[in-house]
Design goal:
The protein is α/β, with parallel strands linked by helices. It has two domains: 240 residues, no CATH class; 252 residues, TIM Barrel (Alpha-Beta Barrel). Helix content is 55%, strand content 7%. The chain has 19 helices and eight strands. The protein has an eight-stranded parallel beta barrel, surrounded by five helices. The radius of gyration is 28 Å and the shape is elongated.
Length: 541
Amino acid sequence: MEPISLRTPLALLLISLGAVAAIWWWLATPIILARAPIDPAAKLLCVSYAPFRDTQTPLLETTHIAPEQIARDLAQLAKISDCVRTYSIEHGLDQVPALAAKVGLKVIQGIWLGSNRLKNLEQISTVVGLTKEYPGVITSVVVGNEVLLRGEMTTADLAATIRSVKSQISVPVTYADVWEYWLHNREVYEAVDFVTIHILPYWEDFPIRAKYAASHVDDIRKRIAVAFPGKEILIGETGWPSEGRMREGALPSRTNQARVVSEILGLAKRENFRVNLIEAYDQPWKRQLEGTVGGYWGLFDSVHRALKYPPNEPISNFPFWKLQMGCGMALSLAVFLAAWLTLRRRPWSPRLAAWIAVAISATTAGILLGVAGNKLFYESYGIGGWLRWGALLAAGVAAPLLSANALMSGRAPPTFLELLGPREDRTRSVLAMLLGAVMVVTVLIAAETALGFVFDPRYKDFPFAALTMAVLPLSVLMFLNRPPEGVRPIAESVFAGLLAIAALYTLFNEGLNNWQSLWTCAAYLVLGATLWQARGVQIPK
C-alpha cells in the first residue's frame, strides 16, 4: 500500500496546489478598457453626491455632516467632474453650494419631497434661498426624487409643487424618477423645464446584463425622447454596482462597473446627451435598505475615498489575488497535513477513495477561501452580519480539516442526536463534537438563508463560496463513511426536506441565468442529500 500512503497523496497535493494557483490566476485576469472609466483629462458632466461615510446615515435625524468633511469631498470631486447632484438640504447638505463655489463645481440642487407637507415646505424654502444666494453655482433644481415611485405624493400634488417652486426661482426646474413613471404621469412633464429620468439596468424589472447595459440606456433615452419631444432629457441616474448579489444575469463586480460606466460615458459623448452618474462615493448606509448591492455604486470607496479605477491601470475583480491565492494554497496544504497526521497517530492503509476525497475537499477549500473572504468583507453589515458570515466561513475552513481527520480515521459524521440528545447517547470524542458543531452551524445558516430566498429574496446575498467550502467535505465524508445500518434521524430529515423545497423554489424564482443562485441551490441540495443519508445507531435499552 506504499503508493497510496505516500506517493499518491503527494501527487494529489501537487495537483491541488496547482489547481488553486491556476484558478486564481484566471479569476484575477484584469481587463483594460479603451476608455478609462474616470479620466481627469475629460471630466464628468455630473455625479450624484452624498457625504455619508462609515456609520454616518441620513436615516438618523440627528446626523449632521461637518463642512470640513464635505469640503474635502468636493475638492476631490472637482478633479474629475464639473458638477455634483444633491438630493436634499438636510444633514448639512445645505452647505454644498457654498463649498462647491470655492472649488469651481456646479450643483444640481435637490429638494427631497415626501409625505410630510411641513418638511416639504421647509426644504423648498431653503432651496429657494440657496438659488438666490448662489445663482452662478446652482444650475437647476430637482423638485422631488422618486416620490411617485415611493407612492408618497399624488401626481397632481407633485405637479402643483413643481409649479410653485418654478414661480419662485429663475433656474430650470425638473423632477427625477425611474423612466417608466414618466410615461404614466404626463402631467409632471407639462410642469417641468426638462425631463430627468433614472435608468438603472441592474434594477430593471427584467435585469440587464452588464454587456448590454449601455445600449439599454440609449434605447430607453430614445424612447423617452420620442414620448416627450419638446424638452431636453437628462439621465439623472445611471451606473452599475461593484459588489452584491446577482439579479438574473446582472452581475455586480468591479470589472462590470468599470465597463458599464466607460461604455455609457463613451455613448453620451458620441450621441451628445447629458448623463449624471450614481454615485460619487460608496454609501454603506444604503445596505440597510437595499442589501449589500446598495452600498457599492460609488466611483470612490467609502473609507479611503480612493478612486476605484485609476486611469491606465488594469482592472481586476480581485486586486489582492496573490494574497488570496497564497492563503488558499496554505489551507489546501493544511488539509493534507491533517490527513497525514491522523495516519501517523493511527497507522493503517486507507482506501484510495479517502485520499481523493481529501484532495477534493482541500482543492475546493483552497480555491474558494479567497472568494469567501472577499464576500465576508463586503457583505457583512452590522454585528449580526459579521457573526453570521464569519461563523459560516469558520465552518468552511474547519470542515475540510476535520473531515480529513474523519476520513483517515474511518469515522462517520455524528448525528444531531449524538451532539444534543440525552447525555448517555452523546459522543465522547472531541474531534467528533467539533465536526458535529461545524455541521450544526452549516445547517442552521443554510436553512436561514434558504428561507430568506423564499420569503424575502430581493436583497439577500448568495453564500455560495463559504457554504460550498463547508458542505462538500461533509458530503464526501458522509458518502464514504456512513454507517451501513441505522435509523434515519428525524431532525436531519426535516432539514433535508426544508433545504430541498427551498432550493427548488429559489431555482424557479431566480431563473436559470443567475449562476450565483444555481450554485447556492446546488449546495443546498447537496447538503440536503447529505443529511438524508445520515444514520443513527440504535442503542439497546
